[in-house]
Amino acid sequence: MAIVGRRLGQNILVLCIVISLGFCVSEIADETCETLPSEIHLVKEEYDELGRLQRTCNGEIAVNKCEGSCKSQVQPSVITPTGFLKECYCCRESFLRERIITLNHCYDPDGMRLTNEGNNAMDVKLREPAECKCYKCGDFSR
To answer: Where does the record place a coiled coil (predicted)?
Structure first.
């Protein structure tokens, strides 16, 4: 058995363990999961009780997002059916914050801009990441 290690790029470390068939374990040296500012274009439509479009509002909204990489690995295993134990981690929200945002560009069904008070803006409830961290992939029990 031989262990060979080499660095690829800035944060990638590849370890190769050579047995008769040989395989590699790849892992990210540093976790970089973080909460970052972002901007999205949001469009919200409002309908009456008969299902007819009343108005459409939109705007550019500053929101947080989770982005980055987490340590994951694959290693040999005699107890798993595939012969490998996979431990995958994903960058996800650990806490969501609820916000009310206001869309200020509202239009009627004909595309005319609404200017009268009460119809010229729309409040929308939004949930965004307040904190992000690495979680085991597929683990939604938090």
So the answer is: none
Q: What does the pLDDT look like over 123-136, one tens digit per residue?
A: 999 999 999 999 99
What string of DSSP letters covers 42-92? Answer: EEEEEE-TTS-EEEEEEEEEEEEEEE-----EEEE-SSSTTSEEEE-EEEE
Helix (H, G, I), strand (E, B) or coil at 116: coil
pTM above 0.70, yes or no: no
For residues 58 and 106, what is the distance between their CA atoms, to the nearest angstrom? 7
| Domain around 79 | 31-136
Number of domain units in the chain: 1
Sheet holding 12-18, edge to edge: 2-8, 12-18, 23-28
Q: What is the CATH number of the domain that holds 128?
A: 2.10.90
